[in-house]
Each structure stands twice: as C-alpha cells, then as structure tokens.
Design goal:
Helix content is about 40%, strand content about 0%. The protein is built from two helices and no strands.
C-alpha cells in the first residue's frame, strides 16, 4: 500500500502545480506608442496580401486577376506615356 500512495501523491502534486501555473496571471509590459509626428523606423515594410500566387508576370499574357494586379504594379513604373 505504501508504494501505491507515493506515485499517486506525486501525480496529485504535479496536477495541482500545473493548475496553479496555468492560472497565473501573465506579466503585462507597457508599450509606448510612437508620436504621430515621428518619422517611420528604418526598415519599415508594407506587406499587401494577395488571393493567390501569380502565374505570369507579363501583362499581356496575364489571364487571372492576381497575375494582372502584380504585373500592373511592376510595369506601371517602367512604361509611362
């Protein structure tokens, strides 16, 4: 009987310890908002989502909307009237 109580006691203590750890409040850190007039940080990047991958980047051959949208962004700056 003594051997059976020790593993059960270890299991019970482990479960109670895990519950206390899980219920512990997380430490909150204050984040300072940048001022409205501050210049953007070096290396900032604008990422624009897309529906899918472009199948073709040649504007004349682009048959789907994703390819046409990306090709127009690339060739808009290269070809101006």
């Amino acid at each position: 009987m003594q051997r059976r109580i020790t593993p059960l006691l270890v299991l019970a203590v482990s479960v109670i310890w895990a519950v206390f750890i899980a219920c512990k409040q997380k430490a909150t850190t204050e984040t300072k908002e940048p001022s409205k007039n501050a210049p953007p940080a070096y290396g900032d990047v604008l990422v624009e989502g897309s529906i899918g991958d472009a199948s073709n980047l040649i504007p004349i051959l682009a048959s789907d909307s994703t390819s046409h949208g990306i090709a127009s962004l690339i060739y808009n700056g290269l070809v101006k009237y």
